[in-house]
Amino acid sequence: MMDRRTLLTALGALALFPSVANAAADTDKLILTDAQWKARLTAEQFDILRREGTEVPFSSKLDYEKRAGTYYCVACNLALYSSKTKFDSGTGWPSFWAPLPNAVATKTDNSLPEERNEVHCRRCEGHLGHVFDDGPPPTGKRYCMDGVALKFKPA
Questions:
Q1: pLDDT tens profile 59-76
Q2: Selection from 106, 109, 142, 139 nearest residue 121 by Cα
Q3: Active site residue: 73, 76, 121, 144, which one?
Q4: Are residues 124 and 143 in the same domain?
Q5: How distant is the alpha carbon of residue 142 from its chain centre?
Q6: Residue spans of the chain under pLDDT 50
């Protein structure tokens, strides 16, 4: 348990160094109720991000995006992927060979007969897609993402 002195010292440090406070806020988990997520997301975004759905292949305009920029989680605005790692996998979903540092996490997905690795946003834990071992160098990974779960900001 934190005592009063420690709390006041921490608050004072955050007041003196606001960039530290912003960095800390940027990495905190975002936990909301289903009702709060439904108010924040479209029905399709909610299905994919919170219920692990999948969008129809070749339906996302982000699959065809070619500009330089960054892809963010549509639910919590965490930067996830750089356009520098995007490639055309031919699968119908935006694909990347690597995420940005500390952006995503993975877990085992046993929803199909074959085991897969689900990718989710590290901050809000929203389902983004899956990662496979058939991507290009230098990682050999294919982060196959649902475009509905992403938003793009040009450089």
A1: 999 999 999 999 999 999
A2: 106
A3: 144
A4: yes
A5: 15
A6: 1-26
Decide the pairing of beta strands 104-109 and 150-154.
unpaired
In this structure, the answer to whether residues 89 and 21 fall within a common structural domain is no
Residues 95 and 134 in one domain: yes
Average pLDDT, the chain: 86
Check if the beta carbon of residue 71 is closer than 8 Å to that of residue 152.
Answer: yes
Same structural domain, 13 and 50: no
Q: How far apart are CA 149 and CA 129, in angstroms?
A: 9
Do 127 and 117 contact (CB within 8 A), yes or no?
Answer: no
Please give the model's pTM, rounded to 2 decimal places. Answer: 0.80
Query: What residues contact residue 142 under an 8 Å CB cut-off, 6+ apart?
Result: 89, 91, 95, 96, 97, 131, 132, 133, 134, 135, 136
144 part of the active site: yes
Nearest alpha-carbon partner for 28 in 17, 40, 20, 36: 20
